[in-house]
Amino acid sequence: MDVKAKVNELLQPYLNEGQYFVVDIQVSPSRTRAKITVLLDSDTGITIDECAVISRKLGNQLEELEVFDGQAFTLEVSSPGIDEPLVLKRQYFKNVGRQIEVLLNDGQIRKGKLESVGDEQIVITEIPIKKPKKNDPPLDPTAIPFTDIKKSTIQVSFK
Fold first, then answer.
1. Coiled-coil annotation: which residues (predicted)?
2. N or C: which end of the chain has fewer CB within 10 A?
């Protein structure tokens, strides 16, 4: 079993029966010090303290099992940053109502407010390219199938 799969297996008991979920696990082997980065999230977010508890427990297990054959390693457990792309459908749900940028497989970029998430698609209300005039009709929501999405990123707004 490779290290990434082993880390994922060891994490499962600490996910509080599905409250937290694994977004990504990255393993960077090295001759001097390997690095493991674990990105966790939940439907309501995850705190630094929650990450620290999971990190301590996981780190202790990795040391006990000598996953890196006694070599030193660094373990980072955190939530994905706001600039990290959305990877799982579950991440879209907690971002309904926020601004999103969607890069489609054909290279088009769609920006707008994430209105809803379905089994097969997301729905956004796009930001108009030019400022609408007083009598312009509102833009209709646009459905974007997950199969058409190459990358989605939540847009930070300081308004």
1. none
2. C
Handedness of CA 37, 43, 48, 49 (dihedral sign): negative
Distance CA 54, CA 23 (A): 15
d(CA 107, CA 73): 39
Residue 36 tokens read as 């493991």
Q: What is the pLDDT along the chain (159 residues), one digit of tens a residue?
A: 688 999 999 999 999 888 999 999 999 888 888 899 999 999 888 999 999 999 999 999 999 998 888 788 999 999 998 888 999 999 999 899 999 999 999 999 999 999 999 999 999 998 876 777 777 777 789 999 999 999 999 998 776
Q: Tell me where in the chain the CATH 3.30.70.1350 domain(s) lie.
A: 3-78
Give the span between the Cα atoms of 138 and 52, in whole angstroms: 46
